[in-house]
Amino acid sequence: MSYVRSTAFDETGYVVLDSYDQAADPKEWLDLEYVDWKSSGDTRFAPLASAFGDMECNGFWNHTPPRTDKDGVWVPSNIEKAPILKARAEEPGANIGRCRVIELQPDTYPTALYNLHQDDNNRLNPDGTGWIVRGFFNLSDDPDSYLILREDRFDPETEVRISLPAGRQVIVDTQRFWHAVWQKGPEPRYCLITSWESGPELDAYIEKYHGDPHFPSAALDPKFVEDAQVEVRRRLAERAATLAARGKAGQVLVDLDLDED
């Protein structure tokens, strides 16, 4: 199918925008109502826009009528508490689908690798319309934590690690990348996640904030990375054995039914 895509993502699949002065804003995310929703790690979400403006996080294709991740409806009680976050999501002028704040508890590098997943933002997306990508605006200050991107889930050579200080702004084609966050902690990480439709509005926004498709990837010791890979393979093998015992062999590669950071 032929979609409208941003050339900013052609080479690397992501861009890092100019940093935002997060310290100048109130911590609106601490006042929001959160709901339990499983993603890559121990998480809760505070919906700002959902399929029909309800306090829920389900994919738009799981509603009636089913549709792609576009035309989100603001959740009144949460946007009342977070007008600045709402304005930041609206700034590009692009069509918004799901918009929410994620709360992620601290985890480990092997756990983040185990939880790598691809999004399914473009399910039911009509041919000829804009491809859905996701913005990740880090709200808490987590300079030693990383957004991990891999084009190949099991190949660390394809891994990009983007550090997450307060104000880090990243836009990612999350249907292209396997992704998760390694949150070192000790406190939870908070991040504004917005689904945007690609098109001239988003292109202009990326240009305005100097979107960088070659942001430096943080270095890790190769032995540390390999040890983590061994641990992930061990966990996957254990999971496969459990599923086989339940008569669900072959499900291990799709057992993480996730669609978020």
UniProtKB/TrEMBL annotation:
Designated name of the protein: Uncharacterized protein
Originating organism: Herbiconiux ginsengi
Lineage: Bacteria, Bacillati, Actinomycetota, Actinomycetes, Micrococcales
